[in-house]
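Encode chain A's predicted structure.
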Amino acid sequence: MKHAWLPLLLAIAALAQEPGFPPDLSLPPGRVRYGGAKRRQSDALSKEDFKNNVRDAAELVKLSQSLEASIARDGSYIVNANDIRTAEQIEKLARKIRGRLKPF
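Encoded structure for chain A:
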């Protein structure tokens, strides 16, 4: 009799909780559906990232083709300082693109 209030307390606590809504299964895990202004801002950022990715990818192709031509032109035993700088620029662009593609 001493603990007869325990089931009553548990029942009240269960009823006091807000009902849980099932997760939205249409979105991949880790993504959140935004509403209103936050969603428009997110869409604008996505469009901006897309434009930047296309621009940087074109630059990446141009740099890699110039590096390939320079390496073929110089021969197998010569390392040009410009080739090293170009390779570093390629790495930098690739990291920027990857960072925008993988924001989380």
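Residues 33-104 form one domain.
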